[in-house]
Amino acid sequence: MVKKTKNEKQLEDISTKLDKIIGLLTIQNTEDKNDKVYLLKKQGWSSRNIGFLLGIQNVRQMEGWKRK
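The structure assignment produced for this chain is given below.
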């Protein structure tokens, strides 16, 4: 196993944060909450974070979460 340098770790952290920002921009013009949930789930967001972001209490009960 290769140990990552500090710079590589920082680059990975920045990349992860940029991916999340891009995900938010992606759903900005989507009106249907199920579509928003589906898109964020596909980008790796947790149900807790999606619920907080969209103001939904039961994200896992939504059609968008159950889609494959």
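Interim note for the steering committee: Residues 27 and 37 are 9 Å apart (CA to CA). The two ends are 33 Å apart (CA to CA).
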